[in-house]
Known about the structure:
Elements: E1 3-10, H1 14-27, E2 31-37, E3 43-49, E4 52-53, E5 56-57, E6 59-68, E7 73-82, H2 91-104, H3 117-127, H4 129-139, E8 142-144, E9 151-153
Antiparallel strand pairs: 1-7, 2-3, 3-6, 4-5, 6-7, 8-9
Amino acid sequence: MGNKFGYYVISRALNDVWNDTLSFWGRNAGKIKDQQFGSNDLFRTIVVKNDISMMSYGETYAMNFGFNPKDSMTYVSVEVSLSFGYGMQWLKPQGTMKKWALEIGAPPMKLVRNADKKFFDILTGIQTMQIASIQKSTDTNNRYCHQCGGENTLSDNFCKDCGTKLIMKND
């Protein structure tokens, strides 16, 4: 039993990684139990459950997604837990995460036993970023796209780089 963790840094927009992840779980028998969206549109979470069956040990995948407009990267942490078992039972979630990583364009990695505090600090920073980013962009007469990280002026309604509708300070 216990938990294992995976950490990914992907040079794709949050919406693209998110949509590909939802599609992946839809095709791979994952039941989405919970989805949450951060207030700043830069952070999202999803919890996916595979029930115990002949092909599953009852895995739960808790995934956090955060987009950092400063480096235009999407950060993803995954915490996988099994309902029972250890050892060889980790091969199934390891294989599932490998398939997911390849599908979203990230290099596959081995799930690890220990949580990475620095990575969680990055995600926490992204989760609380909006207020600081908006204040900074107001002070510099610029604002940054939550989709691609592109720099725009305060008068722009849509991102010059990707066309996404920009979030206003009062939105």
